[in-house]
Design a protein that fits this description.
Bound molecules: adenosine-5'-triphosphate, iron/sulfur cluster, magnesium ion
Distance between the termini of chain A: 23 Å
Number of strands of chain A: 12
Low-confidence stretches of chain A: none
CATH superfamily of chain B: P-loop containing nucleotide triphosphate hydrolases
Oligomer: heterodimer
CATH class of one domain in chain A: Alpha Beta
CATH architecture of chain B: 3-Layer(aba) Sandwich
Largest sheet of chain A: 8 strands, mixed
Largest sheet of chain B: 8 strands, mixed
Largest interface: A-B, 44 and 42 residues
CATH architecture of one domain in chain A: 3-Layer(aba) Sandwich
Helix content of chain A: 25-40%
Radius of gyration of chain A: 20 Å
Number of helices of chain B: 11
CATH topology of chain B: Rossmann fold
């Protein structure tokens, strides 16, 4: 792997709720090389968004990072004070969400929003110059620069998502975390955005964390893939081996049960059961109640993450 | 008994655009959203007919028209040979029992204050088929059939106490208990989790055989459609642009829009990363759709005639129909 840009060690993020403590990210570790795209996949509720938010230290309450380290460009983000974090957010690490409306102010023209983002991080820049940079960015992302005058509701879903990408890129962030960036879009607009991200990856040497439940999108874009199940990382590998030789039984089941448009004769397999409750997760391997290969030790001992093949990490007693 | 369970002829549904009083005065004329703008298709008994297309293309409106939940602007709808639009109230009630709807959000389609068992059995009472202990027995039987077990326990639960997958099973049970001929399934798995989706699809296919069902399967997901549809129609801006046997349409798409749609679907295989043929821009407004072929402003093959004349919807071969000037 190239230079390591981001590394998480034994990261733990909990939500204290009335029903109990939801351990949404449970002793997770992973690395991201500079310039790579890491696909983070897993079913709804497994902790993907929580993990993404924790990197920016923006886990929504009652969520809290309760343990571990997040090392970004050599520095531990969990040791920074709030003022230092504010500088990092947006300028060095930025995030793109599923629903752009949550970040766009309905009463603010998108041009003003982008200009403000530029000027808060660079007090020296003139407004006219910032506006010009915003125009260039929009043009680069395939939106007519005159749309800077528009309010968010005047844009289509696809255009709003492009504006989010503009906000993420305008300060040359080193790391972009995209959480389900195309999930609410139609398939053609989704493909347009994915093509755009593909291009930007190259042009800006982006390091991209792509969070999604869609294995197709990850296959289009990711260099490496990390699979989460019930708040745990269960498998991490380069994209090709992960799809062609998945090792964790959960990854295997997931890949067999997703629809594929290619017209090969193939049936859609089913995976029994449903993801567990994160307040009282199963003992041992969390996947054991649904695993077709379950052994006695799976029920008792939690399998550690091991490098089973070169650059292919799996947490499963089968290996 | 007709081979064609549903026939739709030249069907239109235009919704008036809501405007302020002043706007209406100034414009002097109403604008319409052309949700369904002249479509033709048939659903054959025993098949799964897919209706696919992007958001706003008119799929749900078409489903609701067939069930006569809304009245068309004009056109014909026949169910088992009978004109749905002219039958009297009593006959419509009987027809309605034979066509049932399953829709996307099982949470929204279940009354939050009604127990699951009561909700499933409700139709039996309404149609005077069973009540009391007999109703309960039928409900428990159907719950067991769709995998809502232990049925006696779940019977007493309220919708919020079930998982998403269980709620969708409840909605399926409620539709099936009346032994319908046709099920209009409007994005039945769109909100379900990845591992639940395949289970629900399998269940739907098993039930189809067991209960001799015909499905009108509405979806925006062409990959899922592949596993269950025999034939498919692709909608764009209120029109069907192409229809035919699914394998035929997928392997030899005749309409440039179908081609684009198929190529846009991400494939879960990193070796299959390909250059998409993605049309520029986004779907125009259904209020003033483009002249001629509605796809012409985005079509990579558009010719002069495309912006002038509307292409006829006609057959190439084997019931494969397409509306495109390239195919003439
Ligand atoms: N604000 C909150 N309060 C309590 N629990 C929460 C909160 N936010 C998330 N959770 C719980 O934490 C777990 C992880 O949630 P998270 O949103 O990170 O999952 P996800 O993988 O992003 O799911 P999705 O694919 O649905 O977006 C879930 O069990 C969820 O219910
Ligand atoms: N009751 C209504 N009043 C006004 N306009 C409507 C109404 N119902 C639907 N429309 C409009 O008609 C068009 C077609 O809507 P429809 O819901 O049939 O599309 P769809 O293909 O089902 O889309 P989706 O994939 O988003 O469910 C849209 O432009 C929609 O906004
Ligand atoms: S009719 Fe013309 S514009 Fe429409 S799809 Fe065919 S070639 Fe393209
Ligand atoms: Mg999420
Ligand atoms: Mg719909």
């Amino acid at each position: 792997m190239a230079e390591i840009l981001l590394r998480a060690e034994d990261l733990e993020v909990y939500y204290a709720t009335r029903a109990g403590v939801v351990k949404a990210v449970d002793r997770v570790r992973f690395e991201m090389g500079r310039g790579e795209t890491l696909g983070l996949v897993g079913e709804s509720g497994c902790g993907k968004s929580t993990l993404g938010f924790s990197i920016l230290r923006l886990v929504p309450p009652p969520g809290k990072i309760v343990g571990g380290d997040i090392i970004f460009a050599g520095e531990n983000l969990l040791e920074k004070d709030e003022e230092e974090m504010r500088k990092i957010r947006g300028s060095r690490i930025s995030m793109i969400f599923q629903d752009p409306m949550t970040c766009l102010d309905p009463l603010e023209r998108i041009g003003d929003h982008i200009v403000e983002t530029i000027t808060t991080h660079d007090q020296g820049i003139k407004r006219a110059e910032a506006w010009k940079r915003a125009e260039e960015m929009l043009d680069r992302l395939g939106i007519d620069p005159s749309r800077l005058e528009d309010y968010p509701h005047q844009l289509s879903g696809g255009m709003r998502q492009r504006v989010m990408i503009a906000l993420a890129l305008i300060l040359n962030s080193e790391l972009v975390i995209a959480d389900e960036p195309t999930t609410s879009l139609d398939v053609i607009v989704e493909a347009q955005i994915l093509d755009l991200l593909k291009q930007l990856k190259e042009d800006y040497e982006l390091t991209l964390m792509l969070i999604t439940h869609n294995m197709g999108i990850v296959a289009e874009l990711a260099d490496r893939v990390a699979v989460m199940y019930a708040a745990k990382m269960v498998e991490v590998a380069e994209a090709l081996p992960l799809y062609e030789k998945p090792m964790h039984p959960y990854t295997q089941g997931l890949l067999r049960s997703i629809p594929n448009i290619s017209l090969t004769e193939q049936v859609l397999a089913t995976m029994p059961g449903s993801p567990p409750d994160l307040i009282r997760p199963p003992s041992g391997c969390r996947f054991h109640p649904r695993c077709p290969y379950v052994k006695d030790e799976c029920k008792e001992i939690e399998p550690p993450m091991r490098e089973v093949e070169r650059e292919h990490l799996v947490a499963c007693h089968l290996y | 008994m007709s081979e064609k369970l549903v026939e739709v002829h030249d069907l239109f549904k235009w919704f008036p655009v809501q405007k302020s009083f002043l706007e209406t005065l100034l414009a002097r004329k109403l604008d319409y959203i052309r949700a369904v703008d002249g479509i033709d298709f048939e659903v054959r008994r025993g098949e799964v007919f897919g209706l696919a297309g992007e958001s706003g293309s008119g799929k749900t409106t078409t489903g609701r028209l067939i069930l006569r939940l809304i009245e068309p602007t004009r056109g014909g709808i026949f169910f088992d040979g009978r004109n749905v639009l002219t039958v009297n109230g009593e006959e419509m009630r009987r027809l309605r029992q034979r066509m049932q709807l399953i829709f996307q959000d099982p949470y929204a389609s279940l009354n939050p204050r009604m127990k699951i068992g009561t909700a499933i059995g409700h139709g039996l009472e309404i149609h005077g088929i069973a009540k009391g202990q007999r109703e309960r027995d039928l409900v428990i039987q159907m719950m067991e059939r769709v995998g809502l077990t232990p049925a006696a326990t779940l019977y007493e639960k309220y919708p919020h106490q079930l998982s998403g997958g269980q709620r969708q099973r409840a909605v399926i049970a409620r539709a099936l208990i009346l032994h319908p001929d046709l099920i209009v399934a409007d994005e039945p798995i769109a909100m379900a989790d990845v591992s639940v989706r395949a289970l629900i699809l399998h269940l739907m296919m098993e039930l189809k055989e067991e209960f001799d069902l015909t499905y009108l399967f509405i979806t925006h997901d062409l990959a899922t459609a592949k596993y269950i549809c025999d034939r498919i129609a692709i909608m764009y801006l209120g029109k069907i642009v192409e229809s035919g046997p699914l394998r035929e349409v997928y392997s030899h798409p005749q309409h440039p829009y179908t081609e684009a749609l198929l190529s846009a679907v991400p494939v879960p295989n990193p070796r299959a990363r390909r250059e998409h043929i993605i049309p520029k821009g986004e779907i125009p407004s259904p209020i003033n759709p483009p002249s001629g072929c509605r796809f012409h402003p985005r079509c990579p093959y558009a010719m002069e005639i495309c912006s002038k004349d509307e292409p006829r919807f006609a057959g190439t071969k084997d019931g494969h129909l397409v509306a495109c000037h390239l195919r003439r």
